[in-house]
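thought: fold this chain, then report.
action: predict
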Amino acid sequence: MNKEYEHITHEFGPVYDENSKVLILGSLPSVKSRQQQFYYGHPQNRFWKVLSAVLGENIGNTPDEKKNIMLKNRIALWDVIQSCDIIGSSDSTIRNVKANDISVILDAADIKAIFLNGAKAYGLFMKCCNDINERISPPAIIKLPSTSPANAAWTTQRLIEAWGEELEKYLA
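observation:
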């Protein structure tokens, strides 16, 4: 079956408040996440499982429960991409990218580190957010292994260890 490119626009806002210390950025919401209107909605994505283990918290199931845990732990969440053309949820097909204005969060909170969830998010951030990179007194910019099920080389336990090691540095 030949799938077509679709132009999508990020339809839900970032999670953050003035107490946020860490900003986690993905590339953009998957088809499932766009349907649910919240981050990491695909049941096979290990993001929420990893954060639950790292934070030692039951994340919950609803977007509001997840938002509350993120804010309680001083974590902001958003995506690099505001709009693009894509086939399904495949990061490898992303083109014609317009980036989100990350300064909205950086101006509101004292962000100490920006974590990029996977190589694609990291590459897009470095390419599309250079003005942010030059403007900020830089929080650390850290590429973490993707929690996507496509990243089969990383077990959930390895992800928990990698993410936990970095989060611990900035949320202590």
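thought: worth noting. The domain at 6-171 is CATH 3.40.470.10 (Uracil-DNA Glycosylase, subunit E).
final: tokens above.
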